[in-house]
Each structure stands twice: as structure tokens, then as C-alpha cells.
Specification:
mainly beta
């Protein structure tokens, strides 16, 4: 299995490439028709959610993201005794 690569495109979608499966909330997999790369909408305006249809260009979506280090995750609260 090859590595999955996700690229945050400036002012555009999330580009997913490699070996991956996308599931809906009921656990059903989308049929990607053999695609090894897809773009996921970030702007919220796509008519084909969760996939990008280029609407970000029409609506002037702007978001530039640079790689950074995330803070360590907060440990879960202890369960009551």
C-alpha cells in the first residue's frame, strides 16, 4: 500500500492522492471509479460535496495555509470513580 498524500491548496481544495477510501456517515464507501487522486471541497460551495467542483474560484474563497507543528493532544479527562 502506498502513502496517502493530502495537500492543502491555497485558495482551493484539499487534494488527496494515493491509496485511500472515503466513507459517508453511515460507513458506506464512495465509488471513486478507480481514481487515485481527488479534490475535497474546503469552501463549502461545491454542488458535488464532498468533492470540489471549482466553486471556490467563483465565490472568491481565500485561505492560505502553511505547515506548522500542532500542540500535543490534550489527554482525556479521567473517568469518575
Amino acid at each position: 500500500m502506498s502513502e496517502t498524500k493530502i495537500t492543502v491548496r491555497n485558495n482551493g481544495p484539499l487534494r488527496v492522492e494515493g491509496d485511500f477510501v472515503i466513507y459517508d456517515m453511515e460507513g458506506q464507501a464512495f465509488d471513486l471509479a478507480g481514481r487515485t487522486g481527488i479534490s475535497l471541497c474546503r469552501c463549502g460551495h461545491s454542488e458535488n460535496k464532498p468533492f470540489c467542483d471549482g466553486s471556490h474560484k467563483r465565490v472568491g474563497f481565500q485561505s492560505e495555509v502553511r505547515a506548522r507543528r500542532l500542540d500535543s493532544p490534550t489527554p482525556p479527562a479521567p473517568l469518575p470513580a
